[in-house]
Predict the 3D structure of the following.
Amino acid sequence: MNPKQFRHQSLGLKSIKIVANNEWRAFKHNKGLLLSMLMEPLITYGLLVMALNENLSAVHYAGLTISYNKYALTGVLTFFMTTQMSQAMYRSTVDKEYGLLAIKFTNGVQPWHYITGMSFFPMIGLLFQSSILLILGGFTGGIYNIGLLLLSFLVLLISLEFWSALGIILSTRISSYEQRDIVMTLLFSPISYAAPTLYVFNSHSPFIIKVLSAINPLSYQLKAIRTVAFGIFNWIDILIAIVITLFMIVIAQFILKRMPLTLSER
């Protein structure tokens, strides 16, 4: 067989299970990461949001009047979603650095199989953190409607695929963990705080904030999550979140198909 044809062989959907199973084993054996993920909801919601809730009045959002902690809880969910991008970057960087990506691709794992399987690690992490947040929200009255909030998790997971695919794309240009940390520092803060995660933007917001929010994909994903979580169900918002996720997956697949494969990096 011509070696050039190896990359075009496919194991089918079985390859998604193989990649995802490997990610599951990596996740459950990373005890330090689990502890870190446990602390983030406690700090972000348990300390920051609840402290602000004592000093802020009710929030007016899309015709609704809700307490601040209910509004901010959905924003905290998106914090976790964007930070999980670092896990996709980390795992993909490991694959690329040690030649595992080349081995997977030449043994029947197609790019979209890889993207789907590699999303399993950040997905489990997000669900773990969301579970902790649900418990905190339940005890503090931070849940608007438990059924609607659980339904909004579907939009949350769809949006997570956007960030996982973006993390995989960035990993193709990253050769060290130091570079990954720098990229996350430069991306996470502007993206997370240029969207209405913990506050409400209005007509009096500074122009630069309006511009950053308008070009920030997280703003649209957050609107889609909140339209479900608060029972508004604006289907245009939901459709936008789905479309930008599909767009990023297509870009990631295009890049992975054409990137050079090596068995090691120096």
